[in-house]
Structure prediction request, 214 residues.
Amino acid sequence: MNKKGLFISFEGGEACGKSTQIKLLKEYVSTLKNKEDFVFVREPGGTPLTEEIRRLLLNYEIDKPLPMTELLLFCAARVEDVEKIIKPALEKGKIVIADRFYDSTIAYQGMARNIMNVEQILKLTKTIIGDIKPDLTFYLKLSPEEAFKRKSKINEGLDRIEKEGLLFHKQVEKGYDYISNLEKERFVIIDANKTPDEISNEIIKKLNNKINNM
Ligand code: TMP
Prediction:
């Protein structure tokens, strides 16, 4: 692949403030002269098919997928997003900002569901999407206990995975800690206890540094 662009991902457990940060980043980008250079994508999602896969994975009440089916559906959506959105944008030199990527699969399906180990998920990922990986990953780190406190204030509208218990989310955190240590060079670990503005400033500063060194 002839890669010229920049690939950024956002990761983190439930209620870590990731959606707020992506919203703030979108607002910041919308003020830039080169806003057309940025492409936002969420995983799973972004195309009609992957939005449908997302619905099946997170909000389909009729029949719960087996853990292996869940893993493969997340992977199927990733193939679609990589081939139809991410790679074409990077080839045009764009800055792609992904709300989750394969680190989520490592944390949720690998560590928490315990379907495959990290090495197997990395191998599967390489087989289905090749060598593509984020150049920079913002990991918003929040303890599952704190996440549960935040979630108790939401209650309604939680999806199937968000509704999993504390033990599951502790494993998710373990998964993120593992991959962020294994692929240190691309990870920026952010203390998600800070205020949204503090976090947003930190992200914009790091992102601009990366863009200036492209
Ligand atoms: P979001 O609402 O933060 O976009 O995330 C959707 C949910 O899907 C979240 O609970 C994490 C989960 N997920 C996985 O379990 N595996 C994956 O590979 C991805 C991308 C998301």
